[in-house]
Amino acid sequence: MRTKVSLLIRKPVSEVFQAFIIPEITTRFWFSKSSGKLVQGEKVTWEWEMYG
Q1: Angle CA(45)–CA(49)–CA(7) in degrees, nearest 5?
Q2: Strand partners, 47
Q3: Cα–Cα dist 16/44, whole Å
Q4: What DSSP character marks residue 45?
Q5: How many whole angstroms separate alpha carbon 9 and alpha carbon 6?
Q6: Coil, strand, or helix at residue 1?
């Protein structure tokens, strides 16, 4: 059995990109804590407090 999932995001690409790389935005809807902004070559730790 195959499943297909899709999601339509009605925002400009630049806004969506910023939402994924800037922790102050991303922590509002995805994970609870981040060690910093996503930057190429840098290590970042994300935490989901609700899952321990």
Answers
A1: 80
A2: 33
A3: 19
A4: -
A5: 10
A6: coil
